[in-house]
Amino acid sequence: MMENEYLKRKKILLVDDEEELLDMVASILKEDGFVNIKTAGNVSEALAIADEFEPELAVLDVMLPDGDGFSLMQQLKGRRDYPVLFLTARGEDEDKFKGFGLGADDYVVKPFLPKELLFRIMAILRRSYKEENPLVRLKGSKIDFLRAEIVKDGEHITLTAKEYALLSALYRNAGRIVTIDALCEAAWGDNPYGYENSLMAHIRRIREKIEENPSKPVSLITVKGLGYKLIVEEK
Asked: What pTM does this model have?
């Protein structure tokens, strides 16, 4: 698994009151391989989404209908610190200085080239998460997200794309229940209905790779009627 693919699984929150621009930016990111994107059209919606989604990068407009991007950034960072890029039509130096002074990581002025936006986002992600260790310890095995492998008993076992997507969703919510619908959406996209049997088959194969005894799982637990939970070992 290349570094770019790992970084493109980071969760990104896009906030702008122009619906067409939101759709365009989301489309640009998805076409380039980003898979975890949420959008909001105002401050209150962004805060509600951020509480549940827990983004790892926010792209904010300065001018919003119920506030401004600067105050939104402060509220977001007050809950959990992560990088912020401002995307706005206002290109005055005073706005840039204010944004950087408050802790923004970068600033892109509309109109912009898609490649420029992608470059800026990837640069921020590399700077912000370069020290992150993607090796996750389970009981009896490890998940290497950088290489998309399971390491167990000295053996390196390759993960499929669907297995990787499912484990990524479970790890982002480690110790918490991830619903069947959420896991199907993580693996099969915007139309996840009808994949429940496929999900069960993939869960079984993941357990064969990560568990010492797949018939008695201790790392990937079934929560009957709700979903699944990944138990991560403390470092």
From this structure: 0.60
